[in-house]
Each structure stands twice: as structure tokens, then as C-alpha cells.
Design a protein that fits this description.
Elements lengths: L7 H13 L4 H10 L9 H13 L3 E5 L7 E5 L1 H12 L11 H7 L4 H23 L9 H37 L5
Antiparallel strand pairs: 1-2
Helix pairs in contact: 1-4, 2-3, 6-7
Length: 185
């Protein structure tokens, strides 16, 4: 077994396999898209490469179909379970990283009205999607995914309010400028 550095992608793979018990990289990609992919950006190519890397290091077991497409299926090994448990139990003092292209454009002087209009629509759709997911909560089972969804809902509500406020402010500023400018006959 080789010593490797475990990354957030490593823990996503370990976490998904702790739920699925056994999965192909394609299965992991599907699971990630429907769950952690809502709040953690990850290239799908990493979900195809990471299980093999973790298996070489003894965190996963690997078996391959003898016929058909010869798909590889991965499961958690004891070492992987221990690493996941240790990671879940460690304090996380770092704040989350906000990487928002619209916010970056706003910072550098993009047209606020145009940006706000597009972002408001985008975040209203995401908020509706999250609300629909929230309606599926039966109150039973693991609470972690539902708590993460709750934070996502709160984030989207605040973001929708922010962009709606920018649209209102921009509209009011345009109206004020229009009243102040001399009318041409």
C-alpha cells in the first residue's frame, strides 16, 4: 500500500461508497451529480480516476466484471472506512469558499442591471429546485443531506433577495436620473 494524500474528492468517493456499498465510477458520478454536486464542484474525470488511486493505496477494494463491459466496482476497505470516520470527526475551522463568477464580474464593474436580471432568474430556479427536493424529506434516515439542503435553501433565498435588491436599486437610480435630466422638446 502506498501513502497518498487524501483530498476532498477522495472523501467524496469514500462517503458515497459508504452509502452505496459498491459502485462503478459511473455510479459515483451519478450519485455525486444528484447530491454533493449541488454544492461541491468536481470534474467528473476525477470520479473516474480517484477510485483506482484509492484502491491502489488500500482505501477501497476493486473487482472487475469477467464478461460484458469489464466494469470495475469499488467498495470501502477497512482503511477507507477508518479514514472517512477520522475525517468526519475532525474539526473544520475553515470557512467555505465562495466561487461565484457573477460576483467576480460584479466586483470588476459588470453592468449591474444585466447581471442582476440573469442572476435573479438563475437563483430563483435553483431555489425552486431545492424547495422541491425539500418536499421529499420524510424526517427519517440520515439528517446530513437534509441539513445541507436547508443551508442551500437559505443561501439561495439570501442570494435571490440580494439580486432583487440590485435590480430595484438600479431601476430607482435610472428613474432618478431620468427625472433630473432636462427634457428635450
Amino acid at each position: 500500500m502506498q501513502a497518498i494524500r487524501l483530498t476532498p474528492i477522495s472523501f467524496i468517493v469514500l462517503g458515497l461508497l459508504s452509502w452505496a456499498k459498491r459502485a462503478t465510477p459511473y455510479d459515483l458520478k451519478q450519485m455525486a451529480s444528484a447530491s454533493v454536486g449541488q454544492f461541491w464542484t468536481l470534474p467528473h474525470s476525477q470520479l473516474y480516476a480517484e477510485p483506482a488511486r484509492l484502491a491502489r493505496a488500500g482505501y477501497l477494494t476493486e473487482d472487475q466484471e469477467q464478461g460484458g463491459r469489464h466494469r470495475k466496482r469499488y467498495s470501502l476497505a477497512d482503511r477507507g472506512r477508518e479514514a472517512l470516520d477520522d475525517w468526519l470527526g475532525a474539526l473544520t475551522p475553515e470557512p467555505y469558499v465562495l466561487r461565484d463568477v457573477a460576483l467576480l464580474k460584479l466586483f470588476f464593474g459588470a453592468n449591474v442591471a444585466e447581471l442582476a436580471e440573469g442572476q435573479l432568474e438563475t437563483h430563483r430556479r435553483k431555489l425552486a429546485e431545492y424547495k422541491a427536493l425539500g418536499e421529499l424529506d420524510t424526517g427519517s434516515g440520515q439528517r446530513g443531506p437534509w441539513l445541507a439542503l436547508d443551508l442551500g435553501l437559505r443561501h439561495e433565498r439570501v442570494t435571490v433577495r440580494f439580486w432583487a435588491e440590485q435590480m430595484r436599486t438600479n431601476k430607482e437610480e435610472r428613474q432618478t436620473r431620468a427625472r433630473r435630466s432636462p427634457r428635450r422638446s
